[in-house]
Amino acid sequence: GAVVSQHPSRVICKSGTSVKIECRSLDFQATTMFWYRQFPKQSLMLMATSNEGSKATYEQGVEKDKFLINHASLTLSTLTVTSAHPEDSSFYICSALDRGKYTGELFFGEGSRLTVL
Amino acid sequence: GEDVEQSLFLSVREGDSSVINCTYTDSSSTYLYWYKQEPGAGLQLLTYIFSNMDMKQDQRLTVLLNKKDKHLSLRIADTQTGDSAIYFCAERDAGNMLTFGGGTRLMVKP
Residue A59 carries which DSSP code? Predict the structure, then answer.
């Protein structure tokens, strides 16, 4: 089946540094990708919708200057957490929409766990 | 915004059936999904149902949809210890946005 790959799966960084997380659709073109954040023992919160070749659409309360999203190609979207702080520590998950399938299925990456010291 | 609700916890014995329930509010839902999440892992799509269907069966999984009551359920037959995980239902609107429920933690006792 379709696969979405996220990298890195785990990252630890110092406060004040920036971290980039990649989301790739491996065997389909994804014109739309979604970025979610999941706090421990909680559900997924949609952060932003990323459309290839255009600016991301951020959900209310998500700082676009803090969480930079770039969707430069049909198979890659990146999330950069800028000037990370401990409160940004979380599990970040991307999903990609396979428009080529009848159902337009959404496939999720394995997630990236960010720990900011 | 739209809302999706699930019960927090379900405990069953190995071999029994598990039924996880979900309610949603969006009347324009196109698809409804069930995802499984194991500790520290991403989401695994288990099954989905189109909003104009009322039932879908896939091996041990049976999804029932009552569109009038906006109620979705996932039945797992012959539940195994490997089924222990958190199960999320999600509804997708016409704009392809997913809204997730809070997740139901399924614990399977041997």
Answer: P
Q: In chain B, what is the greatest distance between 2 CA atoms, to the nearest angstrom? A: 43
Whether A43 sits inside 8 A of B42 (CB atoms) is no
Contact B48 A113 (CB under 8 A): no
**Closest residue in chain B to residue A112, using alpha carbons only:** B42
Interface test with B, best of A42, A95, A106 (most B CBs within 10 A): A106
> For chain B, what's the residue count?
110
- DSSP strand pairing (B85-92 vs B31-37): antiparallel
Residue-level pLDDT at A101: 66
CA distance linking residue B75 with residue B57, whole number of Å: 9
**Sheet hosting strand B61-66, strand order edge to edge:** B4-6, B18-24, B71-76, B61-66, B55-58
In chain A, pLDDT over 70 holds for what percent of residues?
Answer: 94
Task: Choose the closest CB to A108 out of B40, B43, B97.
Answer: B43
**CB distance B47 to B105 below 8 Å:** no
State the smallest CA–CA distance between residue A41 and chain B in angstroms.
9
Read off the pLDDT of residues B29-45 as tens digits, 9 standing for 90 and up: 888 999 999 887 788 88
**How does residue A102 score in pLDDT terms, banded at 50, 70 and 90?**
low
User: Can you give the pLDDT at residue B1?
Assistant: 62
- Cβ A32 vs Cβ A38: under 8 Å: no
Place of tokens 């900011």: A116
For residue A97, is pLDDT > 70? yes
